Amino acid sequence: MDDPSPRGVEIERKFVVTALPPEIAEHPGQRIEQGYLAIAPDGVEVRVRRRAGEATLTVKSGPGLVRTEEELEIDERRFDSLWALTEGRRVSKARHELPLGDGLTAELDVYDGAHDGLLTVEIEFPSPEASEAFAPPPWVGREVTGDKRYANQSLALAGRPPADA
Amino acid sequence: MDDPSPRGVEIERKFVVTALPPEIAEHPGQRIEQGYLAIAPDGVEVRVRRRAGEATLTVKSGPGLVRTEEELEIDERRFDSLWALTEGRRVSKARHELPLGDGLTAELDVYDGAHDGLLTVEIEFPSPEASEAFAPPPWVGREVTGDKRYANQSLALAGRPPADA
What we know:
The structure is a homodimer. By secondary structure, chain A is mainly beta. Chain A contains 3 helices and 9 strands. A 9-stranded antiparallel sheet of chain A has the order 5-4-3-2-6-7-8-1-9. In chain A, a hairpin with a 2-residue loop joins β6 (90-101) and β7 (104-111). The longest helix of chain A has 8 residues, at 76-83. Chain A is globular, with a radius of gyration of 16 Å. Chain A starts with 10 loop residues before the first strand and ends in a 7-residue tail after the last helix. The A-B interface holds A 36-40, 42, 44-46, 57, 59, 61, 65-66, 68, 70, 72, 74, 78, 81-82, 84-85, 88-89 and B 36-40, 42, 44-46, 57, 59, 61, 65-66, 68, 70, 72, 74, 78, 81-82, 84-85, 88-89.
């Protein structure tokens, strides 16, 4: 959900979260650590990620080129070794999946580390109509759909957007 | 030999080659293709390499940090996919290993592609004394030991140094 394919059919909306909803207690988060090893001027990015004990190294093409994404599984030793090279280019967070009714799920990300205090939520919809009809729950704040400052890469490199600091 | 560890004990000298020695005919080259996916401002580099049918993805730390190097084997399909992302950041060459006598071996690199016409040679020595006593054969030209413009990364990104163009 973090990196929808530009050619994909995913319909998603993303919001800043103003307060943690009480139901988060019933849905413990899964820790996600993502660090960027290097990003080329043409947008090729190389990152490592660990989620639920599974670690990967991913190479992605930049925007505007034929889309390429190669994901290599790596073991814990390699992850630790490579993670050390991502200092200053990291995002870490806990992801909580909360049912919203109507078959919708909120992916609520509680950032820590350099982005401590940032809370965002993404919701995927089955159709454009469902997306438009969505009535956000009271803990959902400003919409940031399509705002690249909230993408993982931008958060990792540029830090938390000042508007929410 | 291309990337001696700064902490290693390798004693190497590197020269530009002015003309191909005749004995190269007896020592067919092994093709080396190396492309950079991305390089971070702190020097972390991610490259793919294929030599003698073996392909690897390597992540190296930048200078000045605790030295880290992780090499992952990748299959041909992945190599081809990732190679496509290195356009404009490549070095390809044939490496010929020529015996020089005294147990020394010349690693003679014949570049092609964007560096067509560039010829370099590296020789590793067993001791500082052997390095100092080395009498280069007549086809060996100007010494470029320690000249970073002749390192793979610099050749790939900045192209052939103008002095030899």
